[in-house]
Amino acid sequence: MAPAKKPSVWFSKVFVDSTLLKGFGSDVHEHDRVRAVDAMRRNVLGEDLPSERFAKEFWYEYPDKKIRKVPDFAMIGGYWVVSNEMKQVLEQFDLGKTTFYPTKLYEHDRKTEVAGTHYCINFAEVKDSFLPEHSPEVKKPYDSVDYYNLEAWMEEGLVAVSGDTFGGVDLWLEKNLRQALFFSDRLVSALKKAKLTRRLSLRKCTVVDG
């Protein structure tokens, strides 16, 4: 009998994909720019934030263009937003404290809704399994900081994590690696089945046992 195939761990390059950044204004940013930017920063560090830190309404910034639809996972006006289809798949798995907050997307007129149902996502789970000593291509942005950055060019196998990461939640950030989002193998399988992985830029990690 062939040995059982080991599950994979996946990293996503969504945070460094500029094509997922969509130009929208928001109610939070309009009323308190400093507080809005602070919430955006805290979110991608994995902080558990209340609903009032997220936008309830977004509107497209460009009056001479229409945006009929946005990707299922996109940065909208500085916040990460998912479609209802994406949310439904994610919710079938262990997300821990990660939460979805309803929001509305409008065209520039602030009246015409963009197609679909959307949610801001608050990333609130962090693991400590990234192994920089096994990820030589992943560098610190500055020698003086204690974290590393994922770059857009990084491909399969360049990010190494410990086998300990198999336990716990299925969607998470890493304590010492910025600009990367991680998915369990079973979650990726479900997203593939639902045909929702096209814009996630998923790559397999190297998993180091022991």
Strands, count: 15
Nearest-integer average pLDDT: 94
How many helices does DSSP assign? 4
Order of the strands making up the biggest sheet: 2-5-6-8-7-4-3
Instruction: Based on Cα principal axes, name the global outline.
Output: globular
Would you tell me the structural class of the helices and strands? alpha/beta
Gap between N and C termini: 25 Å
Order of helices and strands: EEEHHEEEHEEEEEEEHEE
> What integer value in Å does the Rg equal?
18 Å
Estimate percent helicity. Answer: 10-25%
What fraction strand?
25-35%
Low-confidence stretches: none
Largest sheet: 7 strands, mixed
Overview features:
single chain, 210 residues, alpha/beta, 7-stranded mixed sheet, 6-stranded mixed sheet, 29% strand, globular
